[in-house]
Amino acid sequence: MYALVEYKGKQYKAEKGAQIQVDLIDAEKGSKIDIDTVLMVSNDGKTTIGAPYVKGAKVQIVVGDNIRDNKVIVYKYKSKKDYHRTIGHRQRYTMVTVENIVGA
């Protein structure tokens, strides 16, 4: 059984027990969150597609650790103008574990 979920503006495939890397969540480690914006649920070959969401379906997740991605280096340069800047960025993510999928 799996579900396609829209969370914080992005779509994720959620399977029971799977760990998903989502954008940073302001919640304590170990807290549980219910996501009700389920786009599709597939269970034993039977697929339910929402318009836009599946009614009565939700995915229960448990918040895990906060992590930071690898550093991305951005270099700006303009020729003949003596202009150059180097900027680094590390995106922050939260690892969540799918605990249960409640289908419609």
Q: What this model shows, in words?
A:
This protein is mainly beta and 104 residues long. It has one domain (2-65, 93-102). 0% of the residues lie in helices and 64% in strands. The protein has no helices and ten strands. It has strands at residues 2-7, 10-15, 19-23, 32-35, 38-43, 46-49, 58-68, 72-78, 83-89, 92-102. A hairpin with a 2-residue loop joins strand 1 and strand 2. The relative contact order is 0.31.
Overall structural class, as computed from helix and strand content, comes to: mainly beta
Poorly predicted spans:
none
Q: Which shape, going by the Cα principal axes?
A: elongated
The percent range for helix content is: under 10%
Q: What portion of residues belong to β-strands?
A: over 45%
Describe the biggest sheet?
4 strands, antiparallel
Count of discrete domains: 1
Kindly state the number of beta strands: 10
Structure described in brief:
This protein is an all-beta fold.
Secondary-structure blueprint:
Blueprint: E1 2-7, E2 10-15, E3 19-23, E4 32-35, E5 38-43, E6 46-49, E7 58-68, E8 72-78, E9 83-89, E10 92-102
Antiparallel strand pairs: 1-2, 1-5, 3-10, 4-7, 5-6, 7-10, 8-9
What brief labels describe this structure?
four-stranded antiparallel β-sheet; mainly beta; 104 residues
